[in-house]
Amino acid sequence: MNELTTRIVSGVVMIAIALMAAIVGGYYFAVMVAALATGMFYEWMRITRGWGFGWSVAGFVYCLLPALALLWIRDRSGDQGLNLLLWVFIVTWSTDIGAYFAGRRFGKRKLAPTISPNKTVEGLWGGVAAAALLGGAWVWATGLHPAFLVLAPILAAAAQGGDLFESGLKRRAGVKDSGDWLPGHGGLLDRLDGLVPVAVLTSVAVLAGAV
Question: Which of 6, 27, 43, 116 could form a disulfide with 178 if both were Cys (CB 3.0 to 4.6 A apart)?
């Protein structure tokens, strides 16, 4: 298989696993989240080895907060928790997919060439548009608070900011990928860097009473 096909196949498998765990919830979802957070922290420690104790603490917080946010979102009463969790997934995944394909098809202007030379302004807008469209459709279909219509494009931009942050870590460490666990995708940090801000900021918005 070529690189794009490998990326698509492995991406579909990962999405299917995440959806099944989210729908079942409870122990199964908690175990998945804990395993992912542990794997992320392992990769963080490998990338930042020798950078000092502060980076270890930062990595622990970086991996812990989104894990707690996802578990808290899923445990909300009734269908609200699952619907909101799936919205988080949809915004994150559609941002990544929209940015990837829009960047490949239309990308000309570099977004942050010193951090991630392959990312483009067109890819950024493609990700934002995809998240606004698909995230908005999910809000309409499930009856989530209308504020999530506005939050979808905002958090899509935050997701791409998370991607750039992780790219900056890798550039400083001199590595291409955070790991090699996922065919066509690299490591867990490479795949979950956008989910980190989306999960955390969604929880903050709910806790603050904004939605």
Answer: 43
- As given in the structure block, the two tokens for residue 6 are 């490998």
Q: Residue 3: count other Cβ atoms within 10 Å of its Cβ.
A: 9
Alpha-carbon gap, residue 196 to 162, rounded angstroms: 7
CA–CA dist 86, 137 (Å, integer): 12
Distance of alpha carbon 60 from alpha carbon 83, whole angstroms = 28
Instruction: For residues 127 and 91, give the distance between their C-alpha atoms in angstroms, rounded to a whole number.
Output: 9
Q: Are 87 and 139 in contact (CB under 8 A)?
A: yes
Look up the domain containing 190 and give its range: 3-207
What is the three-state SS of 138-207? HHHHHCCCCHHHHHHHHHHHHHHHHHHHHHHHHHHHCCCCCCCCECCCECHHHHHCCHHHHHHHHHHHHH
Three-class SS of residue 127? helix
φ, ψ of residue 118 to 5 degrees: the values are: -85, -15
Tell me the per-residue pLDDT of 92-113, one tens digit each, with 9 for 90 and over: 999 999 999 999 889 889 988 8
Query: How many domains are there within the chain?
Result: 1
Q: Which helix H or strand E contains 110, and what residues bound it?
A: strand 110-112
